[in-house]
Automatic annotation (TrEMBL):
Protein name in the entry: Flagellin
Main location group: secreted
InterPro entries noted in UniProt: Flagellin (IPR001492), Flagellin_C (IPR046358), Flagellin_C_sub2 (IPR042187), Flagellin_N (IPR001029)
Flagellin N-terminal domain boundaries: 3-139
Organism: Roseburia yibonii
Any single Pfam family the record assigns to this protein: Flagellin_N
Sequence ranges assigned to domain Flagellin C-terminal in this UniProt record: 305-390
Annotated keywords: Bacterial flagellum, Cell projection, Cilium, Flagellum, Secreted
Family stated for the protein in its record: Belongs to the bacterial flagellin family.
Subcellular location(s) of the protein: Secreted; Bacterial flagellum
Function: Flagellin is the subunit protein which polymerizes to form the filaments of bacterial flagella.
Protein backbone atom coordinates (compact mmCIF):
# COMPACT_ATOMS: atom_id res chain seq x y z
CA UNK A 1 0.00 0.00 0.00
CA UNK A 2 1.50 3.31 -1.14
CA UNK A 3 0.47 6.87 -0.64
CA UNK A 4 2.66 8.86 -2.99
CA UNK A 5 1.49 7.26 -6.23
CA UNK A 6 -2.18 6.32 -6.58
CA UNK A 7 -1.91 4.72 -10.01
CA UNK A 8 -5.58 3.78 -10.08
CA UNK A 9 -6.62 7.39 -9.55
CA UNK A 10 -4.04 8.55 -12.10
CA UNK A 11 -5.40 6.14 -14.70
CA UNK A 12 -8.98 7.13 -14.00
CA UNK A 13 -8.01 10.81 -14.23
CA UNK A 14 -6.23 10.29 -17.57
CA UNK A 15 -9.20 8.50 -19.07
CA UNK A 16 -11.53 11.17 -17.73
CA UNK A 17 -9.37 13.84 -19.43
CA UNK A 18 -9.58 12.03 -22.79
CA UNK A 19 -13.35 11.69 -22.43
CA UNK A 20 -13.75 15.32 -21.43
CA UNK A 21 -11.71 16.48 -24.44
CA UNK A 22 -13.77 14.32 -26.81
CA UNK A 23 -16.92 15.58 -25.16
CA UNK A 24 -15.82 19.20 -25.70
CA UNK A 25 -15.13 18.56 -29.38
CA UNK A 26 -18.50 16.93 -29.85
CA UNK A 27 -20.17 19.82 -28.09
CA UNK A 28 -18.35 22.28 -30.40
CA UNK A 29 -19.37 20.38 -33.51
CA UNK A 30 -22.97 20.15 -32.37
CA UNK A 31 -23.19 23.82 -31.47
CA UNK A 32 -21.45 25.13 -34.65
CA UNK A 33 -22.89 22.62 -37.10
CA UNK A 34 -19.44 22.14 -38.67
CA UNK A 35 -17.38 18.97 -38.51
CA UNK A 36 -14.25 21.02 -39.24
CA UNK A 37 -13.87 24.04 -36.99
CA UNK A 38 -10.06 24.25 -37.14
CA UNK A 39 -7.35 22.76 -39.28
CA UNK A 40 -6.62 20.19 -36.58
CA UNK A 41 -10.08 18.68 -37.00
CA UNK A 42 -9.25 17.54 -40.58
CA UNK A 43 -6.26 19.17 -42.28
CA UNK A 44 -6.81 17.64 -45.74
CA UNK A 45 -10.56 18.15 -45.53
CA UNK A 46 -10.07 21.81 -44.63
CA UNK A 47 -7.92 22.40 -47.76
CA UNK A 48 -10.45 20.73 -50.04
CA UNK A 49 -13.34 22.50 -48.35
CA UNK A 50 -11.81 25.97 -48.66
CA UNK A 51 -11.12 25.39 -52.37
CA UNK A 52 -14.71 24.36 -52.87
CA UNK A 53 -15.90 27.42 -50.96
CA UNK A 54 -13.90 29.63 -53.32
CA UNK A 55 -15.59 27.93 -56.29
CA UNK A 56 -19.05 28.19 -54.78
CA UNK A 57 -18.79 31.89 -53.97
CA UNK A 58 -17.25 32.58 -57.39
CA UNK A 59 -20.04 30.67 -59.15
CA UNK A 60 -22.69 32.55 -57.20
CA UNK A 61 -21.16 35.90 -58.12
CA UNK A 62 -20.73 34.81 -61.75
CA UNK A 63 -24.44 33.97 -61.82
CA UNK A 64 -25.18 37.48 -60.55
CA UNK A 65 -22.86 38.89 -63.25
CA UNK A 66 -24.75 37.00 -65.96
CA UNK A 67 -28.06 38.28 -64.62
CA UNK A 68 -26.66 41.83 -64.71
CA UNK A 69 -25.69 41.17 -68.33
CA UNK A 70 -29.24 40.10 -69.08
CA UNK A 71 -30.52 43.31 -67.51
CA UNK A 72 -28.11 45.34 -69.67
CA UNK A 73 -29.24 43.54 -72.81
CA UNK A 74 -32.88 44.08 -71.91
CA UNK A 75 -32.20 47.81 -71.49
CA UNK A 76 -30.55 48.04 -74.92
CA UNK A 77 -33.15 45.83 -76.58
CA UNK A 78 -35.98 47.83 -75.07
CA UNK A 79 -34.55 51.02 -76.55
CA UNK A 80 -34.14 49.31 -79.93
CA UNK A 81 -37.73 48.15 -79.75
CA UNK A 82 -38.73 51.81 -79.60
CA UNK A 83 -36.37 52.56 -82.49
CA UNK A 84 -38.14 49.86 -84.47
CA UNK A 85 -41.48 51.49 -83.74
CA UNK A 86 -40.12 54.84 -84.91
CA UNK A 87 -38.74 53.35 -88.13
CA UNK A 88 -42.02 51.59 -88.87
CA UNK A 89 -43.82 54.93 -88.53
CA UNK A 90 -41.23 56.59 -90.77
CA UNK A 91 -41.72 53.88 -93.38
CA UNK A 92 -45.46 54.44 -93.22
CA UNK A 93 -44.97 58.18 -93.72
CA UNK A 94 -42.53 57.69 -96.61
CA UNK A 95 -44.97 55.38 -98.40
CA UNK A 96 -47.73 57.92 -97.85
CA UNK A 97 -45.54 60.74 -99.14
CA UNK A 98 -44.59 58.82 -102.28
CA UNK A 99 -48.16 59.11 -103.53
CA UNK A 100 -48.53 61.97 -106.00
CA UNK A 101 -52.02 62.72 -104.76
CA UNK A 102 -50.29 64.77 -102.04
CA UNK A 103 -49.84 68.49 -102.41
CA UNK A 104 -46.71 70.29 -101.29
CA UNK A 105 -48.37 71.30 -98.01
CA UNK A 106 -49.13 67.64 -97.30
CA UNK A 107 -45.56 66.63 -97.99
CA UNK A 108 -44.25 69.44 -95.80
CA UNK A 109 -46.24 68.05 -92.89
CA UNK A 110 -44.86 64.57 -93.53
CA UNK A 111 -41.31 65.95 -93.75
CA UNK A 112 -41.78 67.69 -90.42
CA UNK A 113 -42.72 64.44 -88.70
CA UNK A 114 -39.90 62.57 -90.44
CA UNK A 115 -37.40 65.14 -89.15
CA UNK A 116 -38.74 64.83 -85.59
CA UNK A 117 -38.57 61.03 -85.69
CA UNK A 118 -35.03 61.12 -87.08
CA UNK A 119 -33.98 63.39 -84.21
CA UNK A 120 -35.58 61.01 -81.72
CA UNK A 121 -33.54 58.12 -83.12
CA UNK A 122 -30.40 60.16 -82.41
CA UNK A 123 -31.59 61.00 -78.88
CA UNK A 124 -32.30 57.35 -78.05
CA UNK A 125 -28.84 56.40 -79.31
CA UNK A 126 -27.14 59.09 -77.23
CA UNK A 127 -29.02 58.69 -73.93
CA UNK A 128 -29.73 54.97 -73.49
CA UNK A 129 -27.61 53.86 -70.52
CA UNK A 130 -27.09 51.02 -68.06
CA UNK A 131 -25.14 51.75 -64.87
CA UNK A 132 -24.09 55.11 -66.37
CA UNK A 133 -22.66 53.45 -69.48
CA UNK A 134 -23.97 54.41 -72.93
CA UNK A 135 -25.21 51.41 -74.85
CA UNK A 136 -26.22 52.58 -78.33
CA UNK A 137 -23.71 55.32 -79.18
CA UNK A 138 -21.06 52.91 -80.48
CA UNK A 139 -18.85 53.02 -77.36
CA UNK A 140 -20.06 49.72 -75.89
CA UNK A 141 -17.68 47.50 -77.86
CA UNK A 142 -15.64 44.40 -76.94
CA UNK A 143 -16.99 44.28 -73.37
CA UNK A 144 -16.67 41.14 -71.22
CA UNK A 145 -19.17 39.49 -68.90
CA UNK A 146 -17.39 37.36 -66.25
CA UNK A 147 -19.54 34.23 -66.10
CA UNK A 148 -17.23 31.80 -64.30
CA UNK A 149 -15.41 31.37 -61.00
CA UNK A 150 -12.02 31.20 -62.72
CA UNK A 151 -10.05 33.61 -64.88
CA UNK A 152 -10.81 33.78 -68.60
CA UNK A 153 -14.35 32.48 -68.24
CA UNK A 154 -16.17 35.32 -69.95
CA UNK A 155 -18.68 36.09 -72.71
CA UNK A 156 -18.10 39.03 -75.06
CA UNK A 157 -20.72 41.63 -75.91
CA UNK A 158 -20.69 44.49 -78.42
CA UNK A 159 -23.51 46.81 -79.48
CA UNK A 160 -23.33 48.79 -82.72
CA UNK A 161 -24.00 52.49 -83.01
CA UNK A 162 -27.70 52.95 -83.57
CA UNK A 163 -28.08 56.63 -84.47
CA UNK A 164 -29.77 57.83 -87.66
CA UNK A 165 -26.53 58.26 -89.60
CA UNK A 166 -25.27 54.77 -88.73
CA UNK A 167 -28.63 53.37 -89.81
CA UNK A 168 -28.24 55.05 -93.21
CA UNK A 169 -30.83 57.77 -92.68
CA UNK A 170 -28.52 60.76 -93.07
CA UNK A 171 -26.49 62.00 -96.06
CA UNK A 172 -27.54 59.15 -98.34
CA UNK A 173 -27.54 59.33 -102.13
CA UNK A 174 -30.48 58.94 -104.43
CA UNK A 175 -30.99 59.29 -108.17
CA UNK A 176 -33.28 61.94 -109.58
CA UNK A 177 -35.77 61.23 -112.31
CA UNK A 178 -34.66 61.62 -115.93
CA UNK A 179 -36.74 62.62 -118.92
CA UNK A 180 -36.90 59.78 -121.39
CA UNK A 181 -38.16 60.05 -124.99
CA UNK A 182 -39.65 57.15 -126.91
CA UNK A 183 -38.82 56.95 -130.62
CA UNK A 184 -40.38 55.07 -133.45
CA UNK A 185 -38.74 53.75 -136.64
CA UNK A 186 -37.06 55.76 -139.39
CA UNK A 187 -35.82 54.74 -142.82
CA UNK A 188 -32.96 56.78 -144.21
CA UNK A 189 -30.89 56.11 -147.31
CA UNK A 190 -32.51 52.68 -147.52
CA UNK A 191 -31.48 51.71 -143.97
CA UNK A 192 -34.03 51.18 -141.18
CA UNK A 193 -33.28 52.54 -137.72
CA UNK A 194 -35.50 51.25 -134.96
CA UNK A 195 -35.50 52.33 -131.32
CA UNK A 196 -35.28 49.29 -129.09
CA UNK A 197 -35.95 49.86 -125.40
CA UNK A 198 -34.37 46.54 -124.42
CA UNK A 199 -31.09 47.64 -125.95
CA UNK A 200 -31.08 50.91 -124.05
CA UNK A 201 -29.15 51.23 -120.83
CA UNK A 202 -31.41 51.75 -117.80
CA UNK A 203 -29.28 54.59 -116.51
CA UNK A 204 -28.71 56.83 -119.52
CA UNK A 205 -30.59 55.20 -122.42
CA UNK A 206 -27.56 55.34 -124.72
CA UNK A 207 -26.03 51.89 -124.94
CA UNK A 208 -26.47 49.60 -127.90
CA UNK A 209 -25.26 46.06 -128.45
CA UNK A 210 -23.19 44.34 -131.10
CA UNK A 211 -26.33 42.59 -132.27
CA UNK A 212 -27.88 45.99 -132.87
CA UNK A 213 -24.90 47.01 -134.98
CA UNK A 214 -25.14 43.89 -137.07
CA UNK A 215 -28.87 44.26 -137.68
CA UNK A 216 -28.75 47.98 -138.21
CA UNK A 217 -31.06 48.48 -135.24
CA UNK A 218 -29.72 50.42 -132.30
CA UNK A 219 -30.75 52.66 -129.44
CA UNK A 220 -31.19 56.30 -130.38
CA UNK A 221 -29.28 58.85 -128.35
CA UNK A 222 -29.02 62.58 -128.09
CA UNK A 223 -25.92 62.77 -130.23
CA UNK A 224 -25.78 61.57 -133.83
CA UNK A 225 -26.09 58.89 -136.47
CA UNK A 226 -22.86 57.71 -138.06
CA UNK A 227 -21.72 55.03 -140.45
CA UNK A 228 -19.60 52.16 -139.14
CA UNK A 229 -17.27 51.20 -141.96
CA UNK A 230 -16.40 47.86 -140.27
CA UNK A 231 -19.96 46.61 -140.26
CA UNK A 232 -21.26 48.61 -143.21
CA UNK A 233 -24.22 49.76 -141.15
CA UNK A 234 -25.56 53.08 -140.05
CA UNK A 235 -25.77 53.10 -136.24
CA UNK A 236 -26.62 55.55 -133.52
CA UNK A 237 -23.54 56.77 -131.71
CA UNK A 238 -22.85 58.49 -128.42
CA UNK A 239 -20.39 61.33 -128.10
CA UNK A 240 -19.94 64.56 -129.93
CA UNK A 241 -19.41 64.84 -133.70
CA UNK A 242 -15.64 64.98 -134.02
CA UNK A 243 -13.77 61.72 -134.60
CA UNK A 244 -16.87 60.23 -136.19
CA UNK A 245 -16.67 62.60 -139.18
CA UNK A 246 -14.21 60.40 -141.05
CA UNK A 247 -16.36 57.35 -140.51
CA UNK A 248 -19.42 59.15 -141.77
CA UNK A 249 -17.61 60.46 -144.80
CA UNK A 250 -16.10 57.11 -145.70
CA UNK A 251 -17.94 54.31 -147.41
CA UNK A 252 -21.34 56.01 -147.58
CA UNK A 253 -20.40 59.44 -148.80
CA UNK A 254 -24.00 60.43 -149.35
CA UNK A 255 -24.73 60.61 -145.63
CA UNK A 256 -21.39 62.20 -144.86
CA UNK A 257 -21.73 64.78 -147.62
CA UNK A 258 -25.26 65.63 -146.62
CA UNK A 259 -24.60 66.05 -142.90
CA UNK A 260 -20.85 66.57 -142.62
CA UNK A 261 -21.31 70.30 -141.95
CA UNK A 262 -23.81 69.84 -139.16
CA UNK A 263 -24.24 66.26 -138.00
CA UNK A 264 -25.80 67.33 -134.70
CA UNK A 265 -28.46 69.37 -136.48
CA UNK A 266 -29.18 66.45 -138.81
CA UNK A 267 -29.62 64.07 -135.94
CA UNK A 268 -31.93 66.49 -134.18
CA UNK A 269 -34.11 66.63 -137.27
CA UNK A 270 -34.23 62.86 -137.56
CA UNK A 271 -34.98 62.45 -133.87
CA UNK A 272 -37.81 64.97 -134.06
CA UNK A 273 -39.44 63.06 -136.89
CA UNK A 274 -39.60 59.75 -135.02
CA UNK A 275 -40.26 60.84 -131.42
CA UNK A 276 -43.78 59.90 -130.36
CA UNK A 277 -43.89 60.09 -126.54
CA UNK A 278 -41.84 60.99 -123.49
CA UNK A 279 -41.87 60.21 -119.77
CA UNK A 280 -39.83 60.80 -116.62
CA UNK A 281 -38.03 57.68 -115.45
CA UNK A 282 -37.48 57.75 -111.68
CA UNK A 283 -34.22 56.72 -110.07
CA UNK A 284 -32.05 56.82 -113.21
CA UNK A 285 -30.88 60.40 -113.17
CA UNK A 286 -27.85 62.05 -111.61
CA UNK A 287 -27.01 61.20 -108.01
CA UNK A 288 -27.62 63.74 -105.28
CA UNK A 289 -27.44 63.68 -101.48
CA UNK A 290 -30.42 63.78 -99.12
CA UNK A 291 -29.61 64.90 -95.57
CA UNK A 292 -32.57 63.14 -93.93
CA UNK A 293 -35.54 61.16 -95.27
CA UNK A 294 -37.86 63.46 -97.21
CA UNK A 295 -40.86 63.12 -99.51
CA UNK A 296 -40.63 66.32 -101.57
CA UNK A 297 -41.32 64.30 -104.71
CA UNK A 298 -41.75 60.72 -105.78
CA UNK A 299 -38.05 60.05 -106.30
CA UNK A 300 -37.09 61.41 -102.88
CA UNK A 301 -39.91 59.47 -101.21
CA UNK A 302 -38.89 56.29 -103.01
CA UNK A 303 -35.26 56.73 -101.91
CA UNK A 304 -36.45 57.43 -98.35
CA UNK A 305 -38.49 54.22 -98.33
CA UNK A 306 -35.44 52.21 -99.36
CA UNK A 307 -33.23 53.91 -96.74
CA UNK A 308 -35.77 53.41 -93.95
CA UNK A 309 -36.29 49.77 -94.82
CA UNK A 310 -32.52 49.30 -94.74
CA UNK A 311 -32.46 50.90 -91.28
CA UNK A 312 -35.22 48.55 -90.11
CA UNK A 313 -33.11 45.59 -91.23
CA UNK A 314 -30.05 46.91 -89.36
CA UNK A 315 -32.02 47.33 -86.13
CA UNK A 316 -33.52 43.86 -86.59
CA UNK A 317 -30.06 42.33 -86.97
CA UNK A 318 -28.81 44.04 -83.78
CA UNK A 319 -31.91 43.06 -81.81
CA UNK A 320 -31.58 39.46 -83.00
CA UNK A 321 -27.95 39.38 -81.86
CA UNK A 322 -28.91 40.75 -78.44
CA UNK A 323 -31.80 38.30 -78.12
CA UNK A 324 -29.53 35.36 -78.93
CA UNK A 325 -27.00 36.57 -76.34
CA UNK A 326 -29.74 36.97 -73.73
CA UNK A 327 -30.90 33.40 -74.31
CA UNK A 328 -27.30 32.24 -73.97
CA UNK A 329 -26.89 34.09 -70.68
CA UNK A 330 -30.10 32.62 -69.31
CA UNK A 331 -28.70 29.14 -69.95
CA UNK A 332 -25.43 30.28 -68.38
CA UNK A 333 -27.23 31.36 -65.21
CA UNK A 334 -29.07 28.04 -64.99
CA UNK A 335 -25.82 26.11 -65.43
CA UNK A 336 -23.93 28.21 -62.86
CA UNK A 337 -26.69 27.73 -60.30
CA UNK A 338 -26.66 23.96 -60.86
CA UNK A 339 -22.88 23.70 -60.54
CA UNK A 340 -22.93 25.86 -57.40
CA UNK A 341 -25.60 23.67 -55.84
CA UNK A 342 -23.73 20.43 -56.56
CA UNK A 343 -20.43 21.86 -55.32
CA UNK A 344 -22.15 23.06 -52.15
CA UNK A 345 -23.45 19.53 -51.57
CA UNK A 346 -19.93 18.14 -51.92
CA UNK A 347 -18.51 20.80 -49.59
CA UNK A 348 -21.23 20.08 -47.06
CA UNK A 349 -20.29 16.41 -46.90
CA UNK A 350 -16.75 17.43 -46.02
CA UNK A 351 -17.39 20.34 -43.68
CA UNK A 352 -20.77 19.95 -42.02
CA UNK A 353 -21.53 17.91 -38.88
CA UNK A 354 -23.70 14.81 -39.12
CA UNK A 355 -25.84 15.77 -36.14
CA UNK A 356 -27.29 12.28 -35.52
CA UNK A 357 -23.88 10.60 -35.62
CA UNK A 358 -22.29 13.29 -33.46
CA UNK A 359 -25.09 13.04 -30.88
CA UNK A 360 -24.29 9.35 -30.50
CA UNK A 361 -20.66 10.24 -29.79
CA UNK A 362 -21.68 13.05 -27.45
CA UNK A 363 -24.03 10.78 -25.48
CA UNK A 364 -21.33 8.10 -25.24
CA UNK A 365 -18.73 10.60 -24.03
CA UNK A 366 -21.20 12.07 -21.56
CA UNK A 367 -21.78 8.66 -20.01
CA UNK A 368 -18.04 7.92 -19.98
CA UNK A 369 -17.35 11.24 -18.28
CA UNK A 370 -19.82 10.47 -15.53
CA UNK A 371 -18.34 6.99 -15.13
CA UNK A 372 -14.80 8.42 -15.08
CA UNK A 373 -15.73 10.90 -12.41
CA UNK A 374 -17.23 8.08 -10.30
CA UNK A 375 -14.17 5.84 -10.77
CA UNK A 376 -11.82 8.70 -9.89
CA UNK A 377 -13.73 9.32 -6.68
CA UNK A 378 -13.52 5.67 -5.69
CA UNK A 379 -9.84 5.45 -6.62
CA UNK A 380 -9.16 8.37 -4.32
CA UNK A 381 -10.81 6.39 -1.48
CA UNK A 382 -8.33 3.52 -1.79
CA UNK A 383 -5.57 5.36 0.12
CA UNK A 384 -7.90 5.80 3.07
CA UNK A 385 -7.07 2.17 4.06
CA UNK A 386 -3.58 3.26 5.06
CA UNK A 387 -5.04 5.12 8.04
CA UNK A 388 -6.18 1.83 9.60
CA UNK A 389 -2.58 0.68 9.74
CA UNK A 390 -1.58 3.81 11.61
CA UNK A 391 -4.14 3.37 14.44
Amino acid sequence: MVVQHNLTAMNANRQLGITTSAQAKSSEKLSSGYRINRAGDDAAGLTISEKMRSQIRGLDKASTNAEDGISLIQSAEGALNESHSILQRMNELAVQGANDTNQSIDRDAINQELNALTSELDRISETTQFNKQNLLDGTYQDKKLQVGANGGQSIGISIDKMDAKSLGLKDFNYAKGQNYTHYGTIVYEGTTYEYNNKLADSANKKAFTQAARETGKAAFTDDMIYYNAASGKYIVGSGKYDSREAAISGGKASLGAKYAASAAKAWSALKKDVAFSSETVGGFGSLTTMNVPRVDDYNMANASIQAIQGAINKVSIQRSALGALQNRLEHTVANLDTVSENTSAAESRIRDTDMADEMVSYSKNNILAQAGQSMLAQANQINQGVLSLLQ
